[in-house]
Amino acid sequence: MSLKPSFLQNEATAKLIWPLVALSAIIIFNILFTPGFFHIEIKDGHLFGSLIDILNRGAPVMLVSIGMTLVFATGGVDLSVGAVIAISGAIAAHLIRPDYVKGVIEYGELTPLFQVIAIPLIVSLAAGLWNGVLVAYVGVQPIIATLILMVAGRGIAQLVTEGQILVFIHEPFQYIGGGFLFGIPFPIILVLVALAATYLLTRRTALGLFIEAIGANPKASLYMGIRAKVIKVAVYMFCALCAGIAGLIICSDIKAADANNAGLFLELDAIAAVIIGGTMWGGRFTVAGSIIGALIIQSLTTTILTRGIAPEITLVFKAVVIICVALIQSETFRNILAGRLMKKEAGK
Amino acid sequence: MRLRLNQKNIPILATIAVFLIIYAIGGFMYSGFFSLRVFVNLFIDNAFIGIIAIGMTFVIISGEIDLSVGSVVALVGVLLATLVHDHGMHPMLAIPICLALGAVLGCAMGCLIHFFQLPSFLVTLVGMFLARGLAFLLSLNSIPIKHPFFESLVDFGFQVTRKVWVPSIAMVFVAIFALGVFLSHFTKFGRNAYAIGGNEQSAVLMGLPVGRTKIYIFTLNGLLCALAGVVYSLYTMSGYPLACVGLELDVIAAVVIGGTLLTGGVGYVEGTLIGVLILGLIQTFITFQGTLSSWWTKIVVGVLLFVFILLQRYLSTAYSGGDVGTAKQNAQDDGRTATE
């Protein structure tokens, strides 16, 4: 008997099979029915193509779902990610054009790029700290704690932009959302970095195990001496940081901060990605699954758009997909299905 | 109902105090704040929030949550507008269709939550996006509702004084409030809701119809959301698919500020009414101030909700021997509430 389990016997990888099958199905559908879908070309040393586009457009959702996965693993949820995206973008745009809200159209002296990136991310971390403290130390249910920021946060973002859409031109900052590194769109690089960092932190240290322990059995983890509260706060902060980076990508990509619409409804995409990826509340989590989940969501959206179906239907579509996946993961539903199938077999 | 000064009643007393303080400050700062007209306007402008908040009170008392309310209001408004404006349907027919849609949506969510033991938060979040998506499918723009019958509904009401007019939507709000008080205090349904929220396992062991009551609660809530949608379209005379984004927070805030515990089992519909009036007062305050923008409302509501949650947490830990479900609080300390 070999000590290393084979690929399929490994629980973590076995979980990824169904999401991978779903993703492959969508891609195969597109290869068969969407002309030029698989076509990747190199223009001026940059990669272009539908597949690259899915990765690029999906970068914010992928980033947020990495953070959301860890929050899920501790038995919580973060509804405020969309609002944090709006806040982060609003602050970045405000730093680039501080006088715009006062009606000054000319550009003043450009704020150093370092500040334009660092300050929104620090504020995002503060938002995560707020969520984490509410959940871990005050003991508010995660849904309610993050709902406060989900709605009030958008109010804060509007406060920063004074209700306007702040447009800007700032070449170095636009690199975040529209630049290329080694021919690969920069948002994809950011996702890869976040993914690698999360993997190293959770799978190469005991942190991942602690998070799973907190989510699976809070009481036992307490007796084990895990500092559950601190870890929870850290996880919410990490999730908000991911959302903050996603906010920078979105803001830099559209060259504007729209406090009303940036990241609107993104919570569902992230939650859907995490659930499709096979992480349920509390306990075992798989970040890779969430990434595949996010890719499924994004390729569904792209497919709907390229097939000329009304984009409005995507919300309905996503809602149906997520409830189906949740049902499949519900034991009662599986039992009912199994019961039906057994009855049918008995009837034969 | 006898009010005793025990731990249960402290949140509701705090609510009344907050209401009086905001009202007094407003009256002190602005002339005309104390007028009957401003007071009646609270019932007109917040009729739709109030109607949902009463449904939400039952949902939260039973220990669940509903995040779909804002989207359902938007969906119903757009459906009503499409039916009346685009298809020329008579509102007498269109309104019942809308109400039925709300009830069916609520019932479906209740069934998913009960039969498949899915967390109510997940199911209603999906419901939120489904309803919003359906509203977008019906129309992307604001549709006006122009119909003689609809206008007569809006104009229906009675004059109190020369300046004060009580329209139909305020009366609907008061009627639904009365219904909520009746349901919560004088019916089996209300008692079952409290029992489920207090301790669901005990409720099952006592032989209470837990599943049926939960489905009833979500159906009632869906129906009330649809009614609120109709009231909202009477109020704005149009249907708009992006209406009421973030209404969930206002409604949940109204319920929590009204003294209902988020952990379930404790709360009064009467408190919710005051919670709604407080939100309305904040809005009025910002309107009277004139220099503050609409986003301040969101921020203030968030802060107020936070303060009341702190108050509730403080009270439930300070009197741990009190009659608030201690086991539930422990579960909450474990941080697993999202899963339950």
Q: How many β-strands of chain B, per DSSP? A: 4
CATH class of chain B: Mainly Alpha
How many distinct domains of chain A?
A: 1
Q: Which stretches of chain A are poorly predicted, pLDDT < 50 over at least 5 residues?
A: none
CATH topology-level name of chain A:
ABC transporter involved in vitamin B12 uptake, BtuC
Helix count of chain A, per DSSP?
16
Shape of chain A: globular
β-strand amount of chain B: under 5%
Uncertain residue ranges of chain B: 320-340
Total count of helical runs of at least 4 residues of chain B: 15
Specify the CATH architecture of chain B: Orthogonal Bundle
Shape of chain B: globular
Secondary-structure-based class of chain B equals: mainly alpha
Mean model confidence by pLDDT of chain A: 81
- Tell me the number of structural domains of chain B: 1
Known CATH architecture of chain A: Orthogonal Bundle
Identify the strand order in the major beta sheet of chain A: 1-2
Oligomer designation: heterodimer
CATH level 3 topology of chain B: ABC transporter involved in vitamin B12 uptake, BtuC
Q: What's the level 1 CATH class of chain A?
A: Mainly Alpha
Q: How are the strands of the biggest sheet of chain B laid out side by side?
A: 1-4
Provide an overview of this structure:
The complex is a heterodimer of chains A (348) and B (340). Helices cover 69% and strands 5% of the residues of chain A. Chain A has 348 residues and is mainly alpha-helical. Chain A has a single domain (16-36, 45-343), classed as ABC transporter involved in vitamin B12 uptake, BtuC, CATH 1.10.3470. In chain A, the strands form three sheets. Chain A has a two-stranded antiparallel ribbon with strand order 1-2. Chain A has a two-stranded antiparallel ribbon with strand order 3-6. The two termini of chain A are 41 Å apart. Chain B is built from 15 helices and four strands. Chain B has helices spanning 10-29, 36-45, 47-61, 69-86, 91-115, 120-138, 148-155, 168-186, 188-198, 200-205, 210-236, 247-257, 269-289, 295-318, 326-333; strands spanning 143-144, 157-159, 165-167, 238-239. In chain B, the strands form two sheets. Chain B has a two-stranded antiparallel ribbon with strand order 1-4. In chain B, strands 2-3 form a two-stranded antiparallel sheet. In chain B, helix 3 packs antiparallel against helix 13 (269-289), helix 4 (69-86) runs parallel beside helix 6 (120-138) and helix 13 runs antiparallel to helix 14 (295-318).
